[in-house]
Design a protein that fits this description.
The complex is a heterodimer of chains A (about 325) and B (about 300). Chain A contains 11 helices and 4 strands, in the order H-H-E-E-H-H-H-E-E-H-H-H-H-H-H. Helix content of chain A is about 70%, strand content about 5%. With about 325 residues, chain A is mainly α. Chain A is flat. In chain B, strand 1, helix 3 and strand 2 form a beta-alpha-beta unit. In chain B, helix 1 runs parallel beside helix 3 and helix 1 packs antiparallel against helix 13. In chain B, strands 1, 2, 3, 4, 6, 7, 8, 9, 11 and 12 form a 10-stranded mixed beta sheet that branches. Chain B has a two-stranded parallel ribbon with strand order 5-10. Chain B contains 13 helices and 12 strands. The chains are: A mainly alpha (about 325), B alpha/beta (about 300). Chains A and B meet through helix 5 and helix 10 of A and helix 4, helix 7, strand 7 and helix 8 of B.
Chain lengths: ~325, ~300
């Protein structure tokens, strides 16, 4: 029987002079690193919140006005009205449609990689995804502008009218007159968030214990049944996290979206028509406004709204992840 | 004819730079007298703001710093609003703007700034190539198109094709200048298929790809052959967009280009602003880049 912790041994393990300092130095370094990161985040939040609230505090704009639909920031053109609703709606609408297009593709791809793909297919798809992540957003926007926008306007210029024999016209969607549209923005975004959603969902599927798969197959299920009844429910919180991360990325993207949506500052009415988002409006107007005027304060308020959207999604990811333990 | 002007312009730039370098003054055909008058001051300044004026100021800064060793003039874009904000804050020595400081800044800030008008810059109304048969718009036709009263090219003698209006953001200097000079302050239609793009480059791309589209771009930018071939340039009230017509005021879509300083300029800032008004810049560089000289 060997006692590892005899008094003698403990004494020999006790710190020699300088030892405590030696292990303390790295600890201090990482502590400073962590603290400064938190400090930057806190300062950033405080600054954006302060700037974003100036519109109400300094310029005396009632908070309800930002939820109106009229964006009329120019005092030369009449009464100013800082309605941010067109941009808030634009951001949400473009993001939601992008998620609707992208989620089935990404989750399907993640399932394929994790459950179905042979080794050689993985060896091709995974590097391809990594290259996807590395493509800068301006390139996506440019591709959208040169290929997608003219394609939409050339191909679907006429609009879609569905008529039934007795009922007559039952559905009408206006055509793409210019191609700059809500749908163009959503399509570009859906491609941009595809790798993010795929890789996070893939990790979620890989994290499901192998025993669940083998156990399920041992009970005589097919692979499809195992995926549908065991894997997907077990990995669901992870997949939802992936979708929320994709959503955050999509809502925050400015450049690529701005190049294809036409940036029309009106409430979006049809998926074939131009609209504007919070990010694209900020990039369009920031250089032309001066610091401290209500117009620029309104742009800061848009940043604050974006920040609230992103904080909400971080909280959402936390909540979803905390539920994973209950599984 | 414009091509000839451009070629001469190119020669003039080359001559300016050569002359400024003081190397081959004897062989240069262009006037060189101004060079000896260039007042060299060492130091480092930054000018920022208007992207419409940027090509001109950038070219002038290059010529000046080439002639004067020890002087550094950095020229940044950012937009007229950025230029005005930064010169008020003291972040830059010169703020470039398409529009007057008074129309943008609060009065106490605007009063601190000193205006230096260095050039006249023009804009031109352009359409997609498919808008055939329209070579001129009157002020009234422009107002009707921009306010959304006319929505088909047929109404102004063009093809039966819907008009797609491409605006700049409401804060843009170009948009407010056009609104003041041509639209008499009428508010633009923003609904429907109206697009918004924020730079000459983005507008040129959008115009060339969108059937029936119309917008306004900087004359200097339009005169680049690469852009000109993509666009239809229109007359305004029967007047051609030419430098001569802008100088005389026959072509009314032209406005002063401002360089603002915070208080009276001194040192390199003053020397560079003086250089902007010298014959080197006003008679050679400015026409060669499709700007008009500052009104005397």
């Amino acid at each position: 029987m060997v006692h590892l912790a005899t008094p003698d041994r403990r004494a020999s393990l006790r710190a020699r002079p300088g030892f405590r300092e030696r292990i303390d130095l790295p600890r201090r370094v990482v502590f400073v690193a962590a603290a400064s990161m938190i400090g930057v985040v806190v300062l950033l939040l405080a600054f954006i919140a302060w700037q974003g609230l100036q519109l109400f505090l300094k310029d005396g704009i009632p908070i309800t006005q930002i939820f109106s639909a009229e964006w009329q920031p120019d005092r030369m053109s009449g009464t100013v009205n800082f309605g941010l609703l067109p941009f808030i709606a634009g951001t949400i609408f473009v993001t939601v449609v992008a998620l609707v297009i992208s989620t089935p593709l990404s989750v399907g791809l993640a399932l394929f990689l994790s459950e179905v793909a042979p080794q050689w297919a993985k060896a091709i798809v995974q590097p391809a995804l990594e290259i996807f992540v590395g493509i800068p957003s301006v390139v996506w926007g440019w591709l959208g502008l040169t290929i997608l926008v003219p394609f939409l306007s050339d191909t679907f210029q006429q609009g879609l009218v569905v008529s039934l024999p007795v009922l007559g016209e039952v559905f009408r969607a206006p055509g793409f007159r210019t191609g700059f549209s809500w749908l163009a923005g959503s399509l570009v975004l859906s491609i941009m968030i595809l790798p993010t959603v795929t890789s996070v969902s893939y990790d979620a599927f890989r994290a499901v214990p192998q025993e669940l798969r083998t156990g399920s197959l041992a009970l005589g299920t097919t692979r499809w049944q195992a995926i549908r009844h065991i894997l997907v429910p077990a990995a669901l919180p992870g997949v939802l996290t992936a979708v929320v991360l994709g959503m955050t990325r999509a809502a925050g993207e400015a450049l690529a979206v701005q190049m294809v949506i036409g940036s029309s500052p009106v409430f979006p009415r049809a998926i074939t028509q131009p609209l504007s988002t919070l990010t694209s409006q900020i990039t369009l107007e920031m250089g032309n406004t001066v610091f401290g005027e209500p117009w620029q304060d309104a742009l800061w308020t848009m940043s604050l709204v974006l920040l609230v959207i992103s904080i909400t999604s971080v909280v959402l990811v936390r909540v979803i992840n905390s539920r994973r333990i209950a599984l | 004819m414009l091509n000839g002007t451009r070629r001469l312009g190119g020669l003039a730039i080359a001559a300016t730079i050569l002359a400024a370098a003081c190397s081959s003054a004897g062989t240069s055909p262009a006037p060189t007298a101004a060079t000896s008058a260039t007042n060299c001051v060492t130091g480092s300044i930054t000018a920022a703001g208007s992207t419409a004026l940027q090509p001109l100021i950038d070219a002038a800064a290059k010529a000046y710093t080439k002639a004067c060793a020890g002087a550094t003039v950095t020229v940044n874009g950012g937009g007229s609003g950025t230029g005005l904000s930064q010169v008020v804050q003291g972040a830059v020595q010169i703020g470039n703007s398409d529009i007057t400081a008074g129309s943008k800044l609060a009065t106490p800030d605007a009063n601190k700034l000193v205006d230096h008008i260095v050039a006249k810059q023009g804009w031109i109304v352009v359409t997609n190539k498919d808008v055939t048969g329209v070579t001129n718009l009157t002020t009234q036709q422009s107002i009707d198109i921009w306010t959304g009263k006319i929505t088909n090219w047929k109404a102004v003698g063009g093809p039966d094709k819907a008009i797609v209006l491409i605006l700049r953001p409401a804060s843009s200097g170009t948009r407010s200048t056009y609104k003041k000079l041509v639209l008499s302050g009428a508010n633009e239609a923003t609904g429907g298929e109206t697009l918004t793009e924020d730079s000459n480059g983005a507008i040129t791309t959008a115009i060339s790809k969108t059937p029936g589209s119309i917008s306004v771009i900087g004359f200097a930018y339009y005169n680049d052959p690469a852009n000109k071939s993509l666009l239809n340039g229109l007359q305004l009230n029967g007047a051609d967009a030419t430098i001569a017509n802008m100088s005389t005021g026959t072509y009314k879509l032209a406005a002063d280009g401002h360089m603002y300083t915070n208080g009276q300029p001194a040192g390199l800032t003053k020397a560079f602003l003086d250089y902007m008004m010298s014959a080197d810049v006003q008679t050679n560089l400015i026409p060669s880049l499709s700007y008009a000289p500052a009104a005397k």
